[in-house]
Design goal:
- GO terms for molecular function: metal ion binding; oxidoreductase activity, acting on single donors with incorporation of molecular oxygen, incorporation of two atoms of oxygen.
- Belongs to the lipoxygenase family.
- Plant lipoxygenase may be involved in a number of diverse aspects of plant physiology including growth and development, pest resistance, and senescence or responses to wounding.
- The chain is an alpha+beta fold.
- The radius of gyration is 31 Å and the shape is globular.
- The chain starts with 10 loop residues before the first strand and ends in a 12-residue tail after the last strand.
- It is built from 33 helices and 22 strands.
- The structure holds fe (ii) ion.
């Protein structure tokens, strides 16, 4: 196990959502009309409900029994039955959510026999409930009672549940997790997991047994149809304005991205801007754009698709914590202070304001929030999370002597209580500290970062005076209280650290010389946050318009030539050259010419103007979108073993470069630039700007488009066309958990006009249009299946095995194979032949709707010359089990493995500006430019770094990105990962198939751990950097994870 994944403050043990039945105690709640529940009696959970017993001795339990007896009488009367022609059944209703305060149950139930369709008379559910405390402090509840059902209801197959409105007519609702019926000989569970609202009328819930349409017991066929019809809505109702409790699934274009005065074109249903559909929210349009929700209101979602209480609370808390941390980071940056703690907050704020005012009004120096000062300034975002801040600094960027004048790194003097490199704290003996300071830079490199929150802040003297812990005879209590208070005020506690500072990203932690190395650049291409873009180079770059030529790369090819290596790869040999192509980003240049768009409008109100004054950059508005390509070489040692992947040439272009909008740019050659200390900074900047393209492409395409966005229509079609009884529905539902909710949140604050993406990425207001253009040009479902994806990119040999150490592919293929094996086994339980698949009417409608509505633009506008086969892999209906397995596994892979690989490494790779800047603010220098001269002539060290930082994200942008990606990289406590059972399966054989898959996932954890421990796997274990970098194992496809930012764990679905 990766121990760092369990570090304090970064993750917490994930508590699995417990069913009410698993709670340890219960209390009886009486529900009053229009009132909150009142606890009446607490009993140990598990006390069986006694139908007519005298076991409960309290008045309350006597009332309960009396009411139950009354209900039995009622039920018997309602049925007109006698005990002779009726059977007594017990029923239980469970809920994992707290009771609402809308009074009693007022639930009406009818039981339907599966085969005959005979319905029981309607019976009332009593207004009593057992409250079931849950681990998160909330309560679930259960209700239970007894009924007499006609004898000819032998096999209950469905239950109709109706919620009555409150007496004044107001809408009422209950969340029900499951309903159970038990008689002497059998037990029937009806999975519900739904909000039952009085607006819904009668809702049907089927027993957990899965049935294809053709196998559905006769008594339930009509209910199956009725249920789907309700979800589909009618031609009229699906376009109606949505009420909160509506549960209609329909499609809408992305016509809600505009915000106020910031107008963005709608995405979807045009040839120029095709896009997948989202769930229809129907707030009404002004012109052709959907109006925003009223202030304070969230965008509508069906109740059953909303985050659970726990997830919603965690998401909101995480969001608020991120905002606070970002704010403190900005304050500290403005004040230029490195220590962040409550005790320094007010002075920092004051100093920051004064510095900013002086800089902006008097123009005596550059405003502190315009740029980071140097690399150290960037890394200071994480300082207090480490006991050894300077151990995070890259020593190789600070050589003692270099060819450039002024290159000598300023050597810090050791204070009495702090070493120069920060690797000791006040508890370290002084003589040891002096010894440590005397080590050369090189000797200091292997020193590991100390305890995460072990650093002392302030001096021992200050601490002693405050805590009395140095005084003889000080009481333990005083010592504890005093120390704790002191630690809190000085920021030396995990909670304050989490609030005031960002955790060290793992890409930097204990590997100060890794992030800026060429080897790390290459390693991230196959094991980083965006490992799904790299391709084998099987043709010379000029054939696809690139300016990269032999002379740019030959110095790094260990005696080979590009021409030979490309020929060998083209002939089927092992590729040694790879490339990453982000030329598609140049599409933004034409968009900007056609439609100059703003990111911000002028702030209104005094607060908006004030924030604009302090946070707005003096060069605001400048964001330069580059396009780029990189060629990478797979290095080998003397024995011919692969030892790492390095970039050998980077080609960059931007809109303002001389000449017409180019199809090629300037080439930055590693061998030519990095050999000379005066030009090494150019190579470093070229890599950083290329990584900004990588970061943009990752966020807009690999992450948002290829998972969040494309999956939503599959889910809408599933709800509309495939019954909850269908085995495919039960199999796939976990793979869509929370997806429409997180996508709704994204539309509200990330991808909307003026949202986080526009403000923090170079693509700015064109970002979403870019994702639309790439969707129209490149997205094919057929090649989203991982094996096909790898094959298309030339990353695997004829047997489908990766050519090189490619952790994303190797681990991903294991997940893929386990998924397909499980799906095959599961689906064949229900589909006995390919004809069964071909004749499945619900499946047919689902697939047709996905193709013609949810993803209809690509074919409708003729964007796929290869037709359906190119886009979907085959034409027409799904006609075999094998085809169905492929389709469903592709969807499941995108929602689970692919998403996990590109999502949960975001914080640890992309929060760090120097590793993956989201924003580029100036064009990349080219030879002859003034900017080239300025950079190459600057002294190595802080001055050169200061110039580099003028190209990259400013502190406010960096803090915003760090807070956002931290939130997005967090596993919730109720996350469902692939090593957990699918809760929607009931059929025994289906559960066995699922259990086998779980076992596969557990074995995969061990396999991945072993791969990560194998030193031959250069992309997981070590870099060609000697022993100076701690290995960064590939953990992103380890199936399980605790809650928190763990850089591991594969949830079933896109849920964050
Ligand atoms: Fe995500």
């Amino acid at each position: 196990m990766d121990l760092r994944s369990l570090r304090a403050g970064d993750s917490v043990s994930k508590r699995k959502t417990q069913s009410a039945a698993s709670s340890s105690s219960g209390s009886l709640m009486r529900l009053r009309k229009n009132n909150t529940p009142t606890p009446l009696l607490t009993t140990p959970h598990g006390t069986p409900y006694q139908l007519s017993s005298q076991n409960h001795v309290t008045a309350e339990s006597a009332k309960l029994n009396e009411r139950t007896r009354n209900m039995r009488v009622y039920a018997a009367k309602a049925q007109g039955a006698s005990s002779a022609d009726s059977v007594e059944w017990k029923w239980h209703i469970h809920s994992t959510l707290p009771l609402l305060g809308d009074s009693g149950a007022r639930l009406k139930l009818i039981v339907i026999d599966a085969n005959s369709g005979i319905k029981s008379p309607e019976f009332d559910v009593d207004d009593w409930a057992w409250s079931l405390p849950r681990d998160d402090g909330s309560n679930g509840w259960k209700r239970e009672g007894a009924i007499l059902l006609p004898k000819n209801i032998k096999s209950p197959g469905a239950v109709l549940i109706r919620k009555e409105p409150v007496e004044n007519g107001d809408s009422a609702r209950d969340y029900i997790t499951s309903f159970e019926l038990i008689c002497a000989t059998s037990k029937h569970t009806f999975p519900v997991s739904s909000w039952i609202c009085s607006d819904h009328g009668e809702r049907v819930f089927f027993s957990g047994t899965a049935y294809l349409l053709k196998d559905t017991p006769a008594g339930m066929k009509s209910e199956r149809d009725i249920d789907l019809e309700a979800l589909r809505g009618t031609y009229g109702s699906r376009d109606d304005k949505r009420k909160e409790t509506d549960r209609i699934y329909w499609y809408q274009t992305y016509n809600d991205l505009s915000t106020g005065a910031l107008i963005r074109p709608n995405l979807g249903h045009t040839k120029d801007l095709p896009y997948p559909r989202r769930i229809a929210t129907n707030r009404g349009n002004v012109e052709d754009r959907e109006v925003p929700p009223p202030p304070g209101e969230e965008i509508w979602l069906p109740l059953d698709d909303r985050f659970g209480n726990e997830k919603a609370q965690e998401f909101n808390a995480g969001s608020q914590l991120g905002v606070a941390t970002a704010a403190f980071t900005v304050i500290a940056e403005a004040a230029d202070v490195k220590d962040r703690a409550p005790i320094t907050l007010l002075p920092s704020l004051t100093i920051g304001i004064i510095r900013t005012i002086i800089a902006k009004i008097l123009r005596l120096f550059s405003p502190p929030l315009d740029y980071f000062e140097d690399f150290e300034d960037v890394i200071a975002m994480y300082k207090k999370a480490s006991s050894s801040f300077e151990a995070l600094l890259p020593t190789k960027l600070y050589p003692e002597v270099t060819a450039n004048p002024g290159a000598t790194r300023k050597v810090r003097k050791a204070s009495s209580f702090r070493s120069a490199d920060g690797t000791w704290d006040f508890e370290l003996k002084k003589k040891d500290a002096v010894q440590l300071d005397n080590l050369t830079t090189e000797e200091r490199v292997p020193i590991q970062v100390g305890p995460l929150y072990g650093s002392a802040t302030g001096t021992p003297a200050g601490r002693s005076a405050f805590t009395e812990d140095s005084k003889p005879g000080a009481s333990g209590k005083k010592e504890r209280v005093g120390s704790k208070l002191w630690d809190f005020l000085t920021g030396n506690t995990p909670s304050v650290n989490n609030l005031f500072n960002f955790n060290i990203p793992r890409v930097l932690d204990s590997r100060p010389n890794a992030w800026h190395s060429d080897e790390e650049f290459g390693r991230q291409a196959v094991a980083g946050y965006n490992p799904c873009v790299i391709k084998a180079l099987t043709e010379l770059p000029e054939t696809f318009g690139s300016a990269i030529r032999e002379e740019h790369v030959i110095g790094d090819l260990q005696g080979d030539t590009m021409k030979d290596l490309v020929s060998e790869a083209k002939a089927g040999g092992k590729p040694r050259l790879y490339y990453i192509d982000y030329w598609d980003l140049s599409a933004i240049w034409a968009l900007a010419d056609k439609d100059p768009a703003k990111i911000d409008v002028k702030p209104t109100g005094w607060l908006g103007k004030l924030l604009q004054f302090f946070l707005g950059r003096t060069d605001e508005g400048q964001a330069v979108q580059h396009a780029g390509r990189a060629i990478l070489y797979l290095k080998k040692d003397a024995e011919g073993n692969d030892v790492g992947l390095i970039p050998v040439a980077i080609e960059l272009a931007h809109k303002e470069q001389p000449g017409p909008a180019p199809s090629f740019g300037h080439v930055y050659s590693r061998s030519q630039l990095s050999a000379d200390p005066s030009t090494e900074a150019v190579w470093r900047l070229a890599k950083m700007i290329f990584k900004s393209l990588d970061s943009s492409f990752h966020q807009l395409i690999s992450h948002w488009l290829r998972t969040h966005c494309v999956l939503e229509p599959f889910y809408i079609a599933l709800r509309r066309q495939i019954s909850a009884m269908h085995p495919v529905y039960k199999l796939m539902l976990p793979h869509f958990r929370y997806t429409v909710n997180i996508n709704r949140n994204a539309r509200a604050s990330l991808i909307n006009a003026g949202g986080v993406i526009e403000k923090t990425f170079s693509a700015g207001p064109y970002a979403m249009r870019l994702s639309s253009i790439v969707y129209g040009k490149d997205w094919n479902f057929a090649t989203e299946a991982l094996p096909e994806d790898l094959k298309t990119r030339g990353m695997v040999d004829a047997n489908g095995k990766p050519w090189l150490d490619y952790p994303y592919a190797t681990d991903g293929l294991d997940v893929w194979n386990a998924l397909t094996s499980y799906f095959d086994k599961y689906l064949r339980l229900y589909y006995k032949s390919d004809e069964d698949v071909e004749n499945d009417a619900e499946l047919k409608e689902w697939w047709s709707e996905v193709k013609t509505v949810g993803h209809g633009d690509l074919m409708e506008f003729g964007l796929r010359p290869g037709g359906e086969e190119q886009l979907w892999g085959f034409e027409g209906n799904i006609t075999s089990v094998q085809q169905l397995v492929r389709v469903l596994a592709t969807i499941a892979w995108l929602g689970s493995g692919h998403h996990a690989a590109v999502n949960f490494g975001q914080y640890d790779y992309t929060s760090f500006v120097l590793n993956a800047p989201s924003l580029v603010r100036k064009p990349m220098p080219a030879p002859g430019d003034k900017s080239w001269e300025k950079l190459t002539r600057a002294p190595v060290g802080e001055k050169q770094e200061a110039i580099i930082m003028t190209y990259l994200s400013d502190p406010f942008t960096a803090a915003t990105v760090a807070a956002t990606v931290k939130l997005l990289s967090t596993h919730a406590r109720d996350e469902q990962t692939l090593d957990e059972m699918n809760p929607h399966l009931v059929d025994p054989d289906a559960c066995v198939a699922n259990q086998d898959f779980i076992e596969d996932m557990k074995r995969l954890e061990q396999t991945i751990e072993m791969r990560n421990a194998d030193s031959k796997n250069w992309a997981r274990f070590r870099l060609a950097l000697g022993d100076t970098a701690r290995p960064l194992p590939y953990t992103l496809l380890l199936p399980g994870s605790p809650a928190g930012v763990t850089m591991r764990g594969v949830p079933y679905s896109v849920s964050i």
